[in-house]
Every structure is written in C-alpha cells, then in structure tokens.
Design goal:
Layout (H helix, E strand, L loop, with lengths): L8 H9 L9 H15 L1 H6 L49 H9 L6
C-alpha cells in the first residue's frame, strides 16, 4: 500500500465532473482499484497465487463475493458483473468489512 498513489479528493471530483468516472470515487474505491492494478502487474504475486481452472458445461453459471479477493479472468467467453452497495453499518460483521480492513491498514478512517 505505501507504493500506491495517494487519494486526491479534488482529482476525484474533477474526474467525476468530466464524466471520466461514473461517480466521485471514494478513497476506498481508489485504493481497491490501484491494489487490483498493482497485483495484476506484479508477476511475483501472479506466480505465487493459486490458479484455478473451472470448466462449466453449457447453461451452467456461478456467483461469488470477491471484494477481498484480487481476481482476474485470463480467458472465457462472457461475463456479467453486478455491483451492489451495502453500507458497512448494514453488514453482519462491520469490523471485518473490506472498508474497515483498509482503514486499519492505514491507521485512520478512509475519506469519502
């Protein structure tokens, strides 16, 4: 995390105003995006992470909750991704949420 670019609220507002992003990115969104990109570029972490090939028969489907898993498909035909916003306070165990995990790593509350 120390190598990730810092969050700039003014830049987040500007990108949203220019419609370069769908909405103003929070610090959480900023960190998750840069962590994902950094891990995909890091050949060491890619080589050490377990790889799984999953073959599906025609008509089969699967679902997953993956906010704490750095992931990326290396192949495949089609995918539908759905993001659902669930406030940390509404989660069964807010202290173990990805948002709180990142805040603990930073030693402070994340900015919105």
């Amino acid at each position: 995390m120390p190598r990730l670019p810092g969050y700039a609220p003014l830049k987040a507002r500007l990108l949203a105003a220019l419609r370069a992003t769908k909405a103003k990115r929070s610090e959480y969104d900023h960190l998750m995006r840069h962590l994902h990109d950094a891990l995909k570029r890091d050949e060491t972490s890619q080589a050490e992470s377990p790889q799984a090939d999953v073959d599906f028969q025609p008509g089969e489907t699967w679902g997953t909750f993956s906010d704490l898993v750095m992931h990326g498909a290396m192949g495949g035909r089609s995918m539908l991704e759905q993001t659902v916003y669930l406030p940390v306070s509404a989660q069964a165990d807010p202290s173990s949420s990805p948002h709180r995990f990142l805040a603990a790593k930073l030693g402070r509350v994340l900015r919105t």
